[in-house]
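Now for today's protein:

——
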Amino acid sequence: MKKCARRIGSSVIVSLACLLALTPRAAPHDIVIFLSDSLTATVRTMSGAQKVVEREHPDAGFHTFRVDQFVNSRQTLIDSVKGIQPELLLTIGTAATRLARNNFPGIPTVFAAVMYPELSGFVTSTHQPGGNMTGASIDVPVDVQFRYFKKIVPRLSRIGVLYTDSTASLIPPAAAEARRLNLTLVPLKVSDPKDLPTALDSLAAVTEGIWSLPDPILFDPRSTKFILLHTIRKGIPFMGFSRNVVESGALFALDFDYKAVGQQAGKIVTRILSGESPQNIAVSSADVIWFHYNEKTAKHIAITIPDELAAVAKEVYR
């Protein structure tokens, strides 16, 4: 105490540095991060999340693992994480989130950059996750997608969509959103790729545009190419589910900022570290929306992109 204090009159003054040294410190928050891969989008998502967590919890310690590097040594990864005994898992991407769900159900988990977490079985519902996992999805709200479609195709009243068993559960809520916007959703199930020509012709006859879901069964490379060529030939406005589909020929799509998605996940992490339960924290959806369109396709099907959208387009494919 001699070096920490000095006497002024009858008072003993203890320095701030000594008080800090003598005050018991809280244990650091150990957080394990699972990355699905090393793609730029994945790294940007992680960076966004980490910055938010570090700002609110500077004592947080991060331990990062790329799950694609442990394909043949999964048990080594699992044992390493168990040795750390993390307070929380942060997963970036579907593969990383699936690994966490299957191997660490007892550890609170926040995911980021996951599409349709309900379909993947990560949460019971986006509003009430109901388990030990929640996070930030990359789903663009359906009503936002439909509003953009109406701006581009003002005459739009009936909007078609192709789906399979894997995306069937997304149709009823999408139809409800359409009704709220005075639209009618016309869903058509495709059980076999051979049915695509007939299905597209049927939708073209009764709708003014076709919306798409990222259906892994329906949109394989061959089917995607056929759908894009067919809709362009028929002059049907087709909304893609990603900018890659727009680059290949879809009229337009909405995308998102991965760093912003990471920031959303980071905010959820801080809430859990502060004592909230994952089961009560709703899954967030993309809140920074980017617009992409294909100028060549627009000209071919005689669609004029509104100036207000053309002015803010993130990418224009020509």
User: Anything to note?
Assistant: Residues 8-17, 19-26 have pLDDT under 50 and may be disordered. The two ends are 74 Å apart (CA to CA). The first helix runs from residue 16 to 22.
